[in-house]
Amino acid sequence: TILESPAGAALGGEKRYVTIMMTDLRGFTSTCEQLPAEDVVTILNIYLETMTEIILKYQGTINEFIGDAIVVVFGAPILRDDDAQRAVACALEMQVAMAKVNKQCQVRGYPWVEQGIGINTGEVIVGNIGSKKRTKYDVIGHNVNLTSRIESYTVGGQIFISQSTVTACGPIVRITNQMEVMPKGIKKPIIIYEISGIEGQFNLFLPEQEVVQWVELSTPLP
Amino acid sequence: TILESPAGAALGGEKRYVTIMMTDLRGFTSTCEQLPAEDVVTILNIYLETMTEIILKYQGTINEFIGDAIVVVFGAPILRDDDAQRAVACALEMQVAMAKVNKQCQVRGYPWVEQGIGINTGEVIVGNIGSKKRTKYDVIGHNVNLTSRIESYTVGGQIFISQSTVTACGPIVRITNQMEVMPKGIKKPIIIYEISGIEGQFNLFLPEQEVVQWVELSTPLP
Questions:
Q1: How do the domains of chain A map onto residue ranges?
Q2: ipTM of this complex
Q3: Chain A window 112-131: which residues touch B at a Cβ cutoff of 8 Å?
Q4: Architecture of B14-205 per CATH?
Q5: Which residues contact A106 (CB under 8 A, 6 or more apart)?
Q6: Dist. CA B115–CA B27, nearest whole Å
Q7: Which of B45, B62, B120 to mutate to test the interface with A (most CBs of A within 10 A)?
Q8: How far apart are the CA of A94 and the nearest CA of chain B, in angstroms?
Q9: Gap between the Cα atoms of A153 and A158, Å rounded
Q10: A42 inside 8 A of chain B by CB
Q11: Three-state secondary structure string covering chain A
Q12: For every one of its 222 residues, what pLDDT tens digit does chain A have, with 9 covering 90 and above?
């Protein structure tokens, strides 16, 4: 079920070094409960349609949609030198495109939706997994789980990437923040990085966020 | 991508009362790291093949395979009176069938694998979700997330079901244990039930577990 599967994708399973991206609409499940089912599905389809186009543009392999979540692999079945950079650029363009998604939601009177994105780079097992009646080209391994954990730390609008993705991208990634976290299933804390842009051939940046100015008061508020 | 999709499955999205089952191979990700990729994929395919057959026998709709996890819906697209009971019976037969899976693993020299299963009953949104190029019949909503949380409390060999599934099944389910848990995203603690069998037309039970006999010593061990 990959969109562009070249002939000869490994049937038996192999280890590959890939960059994995996971996204979801933060808080969307609560939103779901308050909306008619048709509206929920329409919002999701607007979102997934917009994101699919961008993911294909950056040659990501859409592994699956899981409700409002998307799992994307860069580097399998086809390995390219700039897998990690393309994943990061793709994530940035996806965040920028949320304005377009929300414009479409707004005209229909739907609530605002916000996306979180997690990216991680590392070894995984890829292969055709399933039963005779139903097989998919899938990725498995702790690096897949770790990507999901990294994504879970985001709030809407954020992109968090792992150290290995930072390293794979090189100095063109603009990092705005970092935090130490201890995801479930990991033995020691790891550092994850919030990013806001990528230079070089991609030259993509998130819109400047409003900076809240803290004004020092000479006398305390009553 | 459902195996048996009748014509006329809702395109636009609708609310449905269903029973959701999620399974995975507990601890399998760690096992993966120590095995050749081909062996990992072979184990998964033995497991998924065996389970798919059982799920179809109980008229479950396989929503997706996610690595070593299976997401199954009973009650959509086709609603039946005994959705919850069939889900529970299916889970029991799936646990019993792990002996067969492990026999096949053993002859190939693979490690032992163990399955955890979580089941929950409630309202979800179902519909055809995705992009023009890639649509799937999917289920979303907090009851889907809750099923995943319930499954996460299992260790290998266990089946945990929610209160709503117990209620939907009626008195034919054999409950062996219960625990209060507080899953992420839930506002107050819930009780989940460990089950070992179902009576009535299904009449299926897990093999008796070895009972550890605690012997009262008249004098303490040195």
A1: 14-205
A2: 0.86
A3: 125-131
A4: 2-Layer Sandwich (3.30)
A5: A112
A6: 9
A7: B45
A8: 15
A9: 9
A10: yes
A11: CCCCCCCCCCCCCEEEEEEEEEEEECCHHHHHHCCCHHHHHHHHHHHHHHHHHHHHHCCCEEEEEECCEEEEEECCCCCCCCHHHHHHHHHHHHHHCHHHHHHHHHHCCCCCCCEEEEEEEEEEEEEEEEECCEEEEEEECHHHHHHHHHHHCCCCCCEEEEHHHHHHHHHHEEEEEEEEECCCCCCCCEEEEEEEEECCCCCEECCCCCCCCCCCCCCCCC
A12: 343 444 444 468 999 999 999 999 999 998 888 999 999 999 999 999 999 999 999 999 999 999 999 999 999 999 999 999 999 999 999 999 999 999 999 999 999 999 999 999 999 999 999 998 888 999 999 999 999 999 999 999 999 999 999 999 999 999 999 999 998 878 889 999 999 999 999 999 999 765 555 555 555 555
Structure tokens at B61: 């709709």
Q: How many residues does chain B have?
A: 222
Residue in this structure with the two tokens 């990085």, named with its chain if needed: A193
